[in-house]
Specification:
The protein is an alpha+beta fold. The chain has a single domain, classed as mRNA Triphosphatase Cet1, Chain A. The chain is about 15% helix and about 40% strand. It has five helices and eleven strands; from the N terminus they run βαββαβββααβββββα. The chain has helices spanning about 15-25, 50-55, 105-110, 115-120, 215-225, and strands at about 5-10, 30, 35-45, 60-70, 80-90, 95-105, 140-150, 160-170, 180, 185-190, 210. Strands 1-6-5-4-3-7-8-10 form an eight-stranded antiparallel barrel. Strand 5 (about 80-90) and strand 6 (about 95-105) form a beta hairpin.
């Protein structure tokens, strides 16, 4: 896909309901996937190169993840779940995402996926996206959250509100910490061709702060860094 501009704004989780009310009033709910839960297994090298890119705010960043979606309590009652192996690269604020569709047994995803051999082998397919990783890729953490999706009627930007971000599982071979982790912030993501907050969101501007936020990096920090060293 062509590159687009991605902006991220963070907000305190306690303000999520108020911000959501504003978005429902000002934006158009996504016609196909307005609300659902998102689950992602993040892959990294054993030395956590992707995590270091986020920590160092590198201009060029990459992430590899396995992602699947749920629209309700019965979504995973089926035996096979549609998933996506995703490669996301960023050059500054320009983003590009490519992915491979695949199906996995729901019993694997709903159990302890980080220890499953089938999950460990999935990054071997990353070459299909014309990408050479910096080394062997291993599953590191599982992150889940709720997502509301909208479209801004003026700019046609796609806007998502992510809340209840938490990490229920981590691979203890590479991530030293004790899940679960629950973040006290949510994320407003804006994807389009504009570099500023759309006018339709001016009413919530006091409650959001622009930030190069990474769910993966923040959860890793909470797991591995003493509180006094987090930045």
């Amino acid at each position: 896909m062509n590159g687009s501009i991605e902006q991220k704004y963070i907000f305190m989780e306690q303000h999520r309901e108020g911000i959501l009310e504003w978005l429902l009033h000002s934006l158009i709910p996504d016609s196909q996937f307005h609300f659902g839960s998102v689950s992602s297994i993040y892959y990294d090298t054993p030395s956590l190169d992707f995590y270091d890119e986020k920590r160092n705010s590198d201009y060029l960043k990459s992430k590899v993840r396995l992602r699947w979606y749920s629209d309700g309590p019965g979504s995973h009652s089926v035996s096979q779940v549609k998933c996506y192996l995703e490669l996301k690269t960023k050059t500054g604020i320009l983003r590009q995402k490519n992915r491979i569709e695949l199906f996995l047994p729901s019993k694997i995803l709903n159990g302890d996926p980080l220890s499953e051999e089938e999950i460990e082998k999935i990054p071997l397919r990353i070459h299909e996206l014309s990408y050479a990783p910096p080394g062997l890729l291993v599953p590191t953490i599982l992150i889940k959250y709720f997502r509301h999706r909208f479209v801004d009627p003026e700019t046609e930007s796609r806007i998502s509100l992510d809340g209840n971000i938490h990490c229920p599982q981590a691979n203890s071979q590479y991530i030293h910490g004790f899940p679960p982790v629950h973040l006290d912030v949510g994320v407003l993501e804006i994807k389009g061709t504009h570099r500023h907050l759309p006018r339709s969101l001016n009413g919530i501007s006091p409650y959001v702060t622009r930030d190069a936020f990474s769910k993966y990096a923040r959860c890793c920090e909470h797991l591995m860094q003493p509180l006094s060293r987090r930045i």
